Amino acid sequence: MSDGGSRPVWRHCQHCPKKRAFRTADEFRTHLRERHCSKEGGSFVCRYGEHDVCASLPLEGVSDEDYEAHVAKHHLLRGEWPDAVAEARWTLHRSAQNLPAVLNDPRRSRREADFFTRTWGDHFTEAPPTGGPGARITREHFEPFLTRCARSRRPATSIAAALPSSAEPLCLPAVFLGPELRLEEPATFAQAIPWAAGPSRLLQERLTHYLDLVEVQLARQVSLRSDAFFQAVRSHDVLAERLSGCVAVVAGLRSQLGRTRDQLAGGGLRLLLLWRRQARQRALCAKLQLLATLHEAQPTIQRLLATGDFARALDFIEASREILALELAGVQSLRHLDTQLLDLERHIERNMAADLARGLSAELNRPPDDLAPIGQQEEEALVALVAGMLRLGRPAGMDFASLLRDEACTALQAAIKAALAEGMSQGEAWTALLERALDAAERVLRRTCELAQLQRRALELVAQAGEAAVLEDEAQLERARRGTLAAVGEAAQERCARLVPSDAHRSPLNVGSFPAVCRRADQCVERWTELCEHRSQGSLVLALRTQADRFVGRFHEEHKAKLGLLLDGELWARVDIPAELQNMVDQFLGVESPCRKQPVPSSAPQLQLDGQSYSITGSTLLLLRMVLEYCQCTRDLPWVGLSLAAKLQELLKLFNSRTSQLVLGAGALQRVGLKTITASILALAARCLQLLLAFLPRVKAHFEQHLATRKDTARHFDVIAKEYAEHVTEIFAKLASIVSNVLDGQLAEWEVKAPVPSPAFRGLCTLRSGL
């Protein structure tokens, strides 16, 4: 680095577009390593020069130490020779102040130190010679040298003190020495030229004096740097000559490179260019073919929509959207086509839903007498629509199952309404109306099940088309189909349940019609369960069970009141047995009635049971008929069997207690005006009780058969049978006491005398005949 006025070369980078000032040489060295150096393998290549080529470093690269030496020699201290016009010259006494610069000479090459290691490796090093013990050196050995140099040695001084000032300070105002002197500003002008400080002549002389001082200093500086100026001019001429030669060499090199490129690489580059152009043209042709395909797809879609082939139209739309998304993405002329296709798809979806709804409604709302299956043409049209809906894959609410559920519920409501209107016009009871509604609902359910099967055929068509996404949702579609059928079945039961009146007093029921309608409802519910593939305790069954409970209560109250009235008016006389009752008893017991083999009178004096004949009263006849009706209701209405068993037990207990009051308690004397309770009345009452006692085991077995879960309820019939047996025993005891009293009275009057037989024995025979 020079000590004169010239600036070091490392202050600025000469090859960076953005000028940057460096404060130290280390910063410049770091900049060269980061910006103007490349590392190839383990070697470093200097790029500090024109066109990133350093003129002084080989292109094959050097080691790290050689690179540092190269930077220090050619880029940090390049051409920095001592200035001839420097004010201070280097002397021996200044070496102590820059001792590291003397010891670490950057101009010295370091190649001698690593000659062997750089060529043959780190293991080849010169072994330092082993020296013997040296002589002991003391201060006395340096005394002659110190004495000789003592006169010329001076204390070290600082550089600032040793270097004289380059120029004496100018005696100028500070305003003239500032970095910015703007005389257009009034304040600055008044400070530089103070008119008020004195006369103008004195001011002129002062300014002239300032000008002379500046000219003197300028002349002094020019004289001091004249040698450097002329040296710079000479260097400029040399550099201009070198630059002209370099330009000529570079021009020749570029010309040779151009010829080499044309001769060696021109054909290959041209071939590569043609190949790329051909590839781009092929890609462009493919894009144009896709555009032509899209252009032809539009009229095809319109023709398919006109013919009603929605499924194929959806296929074309899907293929067009796929081409747009994968092959023609980014084409500006087609940026709105995807939106148009999406709108067209939604339009097709709405048309398909409307056509499918109309087709389903037409099939579901056919006349009741039209029991033919779906026509082949209609079925194919509906299957095509369902397949199109499946391809769309819309969420719940827009699919086939939802449309079928809505249309089926609407058709179900219309069919039941029409059936009720026809029945009400004929004045039918609610049971007949319910049967009409059940028939109408079953027709709609069967048609709904037939239409639901269209989904499976549509899935087969989709499977043939290879729609994997739809096939993955097959289980979900099957669940939706079953859910639709279950919903329609529930709606049918709910519609029919509304026909069951909630007030039992305003709904006349009898033992024949109500169980029949309950059986019919149970059968319908079972068939609907098979059709809909769903079992549920629907509202129809619940409504009928509620009505059945009310029916049992009303049925029992009527029978209880009727039996009480008949017992109160019972004359305790034998009545004839109708053939109808005998047939009912035989059917209940499971025996073949004689009336089926040969004609018999409409009535008989006695009731035949298990080979025995029973003479009974009118109340017993009515009670037996009631028992058979209770058993029939239990068979027809099994869910109210428990209640019927309890009611029948109550009725049997009522008959037993009232019979005891009327016969044994002589209540019949006040009720019907009998004079006395004769032995025949007692015998007839006992015979009636024996008939019921013989009939109770069959009744118990019947209820045990229909009350499989509550057989303990049927055991109460054993208690009733025991009470009946005790009652019969009491009646026989009463008869025995009556006969004993009569015999005792006759025997008390008997005397052993003629005639024979005596009148007493004749009276006994007459009494026996009467008994």
TrEMBL record:
GO CC terms, sorted: cytosol; GARP complex
BP-aspect Gene Ontology terms: Golgi to vacuole transport; protein transport; retrograde transport, endosome to Golgi
Pfam families according to UniProt: Vps54
Signal peptide boundaries: none
InterPro entries in the cross-refs: Vps54, Vps54_C
Source species, domain of life: Eukaryota
GO molecular function, one term: syntaxin binding
Segments forming domain Vacuolar protein sorting-associated protein 54 C-terminal: 612-741
Keywords: Coiled coil, Golgi apparatus, Protein transport, Transport
Cross-referenced Gene3D superfamilies: 6.10.250.860
Compartment(s): Golgi apparatus, trans-Golgi network
Annotated family: Belongs to the VPS54 family.
Protein name, UniProt field: Vacuolar protein sorting-associated protein 54 C-terminal domain-containing protein
